[in-house]
Amino acid sequence: MNKLFISFSLFLFIVCLNSCSVTRFIGYYASAGSDDSGDLKGQVFQTDDTSYRIGTLPPSWKINKVEGGDLAYTNTQFDATMTVNSTCNEKKKNYSLKALSESLLIGIKGKEALEREEIIVDGHKALKTIYIGSLNNVPIKIATVVLKKGICIYDFTYASSPEHFEIGIIDFNEFVSQFKAL
Hints:
By secondary structure, the chain is of the alpha+beta class. 25% of the residues lie in helices and 41% in strands.
């Protein structure tokens, strides 16, 4: 199954947990499982295809054990989620960062990019985009960062309600800035 689809499914699952829409999504998410698995030891996540070091997060962010993606975190203090995923595929390396970013938000209604900027992550050009939209008629604000390194694509997402977005974006930016593909 397409790892980018799985990354999106993981992202939606976490968002749905926070928007009380889990019951509608469970069947959809469960069908998106992956045979690819990874292992987190300390700050290093390793799959058969890649390994990378992640940044640290404040204690209010709790890791979630979910199938179908690399890593997911939630912060119940302000109902936010954060994910990081990797896909290593020779064909996908030819997609633009914008196309890869847009593909992370399939299913978000009324999606609108508020800002888009190139940033540097792990010494490589990455694209950071801030979106607004809705999921199951619940307003949502999302930040994505997409990075290509070799044949691997690394994507990061942060989602929250629009009114709480600014609280967690600082943690997200710091988390992404510490990323290093090994």
